[in-house]
Amino acid sequence: MTRRHGLCTLAVSILALSGCSPGGSSPPAPGVGDSPTSPPQTERAAITALDAPTFTIRIPIALIDAGNPPEGALTMRAAAEDREPEGPQSFDVLDDGGFLIADPLRERLLEYSADGTFRRAVPIDVPASSVTVIGASQVEVVSAATGVIQMFNERGGRVGGPRTESAISGAGAPDVVLDSAQSGVITWPNAPGALAPPRPELKVTLPELGQRLASLQVIQSDAADEVFVAMESTDAAGRTLIELRKTVRRYGATGLLEAEIRNIAVDNYIAPNTEFRVLRGVLYQMYSREKEVLINGWRIR
User: Fold this and answer.
1) In the chain, what percentage of residues exceed pLDDT 90?
2) How far apart are CA 219 and CA 73, in angstroms?
3) Which residues, in sequence order, are bridge partners of residue 227?
4) Burial of 167 (0-12, 13-18, 19+ CB in 10 A)
5) Could you tell me the domains of the chain?
6) Which tens digit of pLDDT belongs to each residue from 260-297?
7) Which in 65, 70, 118, 247 has the greatest CB count within 10 A?
8) ω into residue 39 within 30 of 0, thus cis?
9) Tell me: the pLDDT tens digits for 29-70?
10) In which region does residue 255 sit, left (phi positive, over 0), alpha (psi from -120 to 50) or beta (all else)?
């Protein structure tokens, strides 16, 4: 398994969304080019706007209490009156376009090819709530039971001891602040020993006056390259049922909005811990249903 190093995911929210009743598809949020506040940028007249995924990979999921699930199927425990459904919440994309998905109920990682063909199961002794591939042969796993972080090799053997700090977090991680009901600001700190100044702050705004920004998440960023940002928005007016909209934007190195993906499904059966990944200009989303897990992909470049 091979994957590039340095994925960064941060999120901030100003609404309690547990009472929402989102739908699988929602009206698109019109795209308007946003610009960083320092220095000011000119909006781009035309951006790449996408709705439906470029491709969808379907991974089977089976009830863990219903006999012997197939080796290549993920497992889940259905929702009950006193509990939420349990099952896979995290994935990562391998360098060859394949996928690694955590199967916490059977304490293992499942590897699939780019077309969804099952390759192998990697046994670990941790119910993983988060999985991140680092380098050519190591995987960082967060335990759903304890929150402890553990590194594993490609055979499932432990690498080093447990720790509480991620190997991929660092002083260069961006900071996200919602500064109004319709906007947020992303800033990058000075990296230790860096000669170049930090990337200028990025201002992300909603173009519609009737919308409220519920959350803002940096999916991936590079101080000298593009930034992928996930936005959740709702109607500003108070309603009993709140319609949640999810959009992902890609900003270029200068802070100009270059692409926008709208109508992203939000009604996951199992709430994800790692919903999005980016590799070589492709946005991947893990989207869980009752009988399958979908890997949706949007080729932006």
Assistant:
1) 59
2) 27
3) 221, 251
4) middle
5) 10-299 (2.120.10)
6) 999 899 999 999 999 999 999 899 999 999 999 999 99
7) 247
8) yes
9) 333 334 333 443 434 446 888 899 999 999 999 999 888 889
10) left
Which residues are CB-contacts of 262 (< 8 A; sequence separation ≥ 6)? 28, 29, 31, 49, 50, 51, 245, 247
224 phi, psi to nearest 5 deg = -115, 10
Q: How far apart are CA 213 and CA 171, in angstroms?
A: 27
Instruction: Give the whole-angstrom CA distance, residue 29 versus residue 7.
Output: 26
Which residue has tokens 């780019």?
114
H or E segment and range at residue 146: none
Interatomic CA distance for residues 56 and 62, integer angstroms? 19
Tell me what pLDDT residue 22 has: 38
Task: Identify the sign of the CA torsion 127, 278, 49, 250.
Answer: positive
Q: Token pair 């999916």 is at which residue? A: 219
Instruction: Tell me if 276 sits within 8 A of 261, measured CB to CB.
Output: no
Q: Please tell me the pTM assigned to this model.
A: 0.83
The dihedral formed by the CA atoms of 224, 228, 229 and 230, expressed in degrees to the nearest 10 = -170
- Tell me the backbone φ, ψ of residue 163, rounded to 5 degrees: -150, 175
- 242/196 Cα distance (integer angstroms): 44
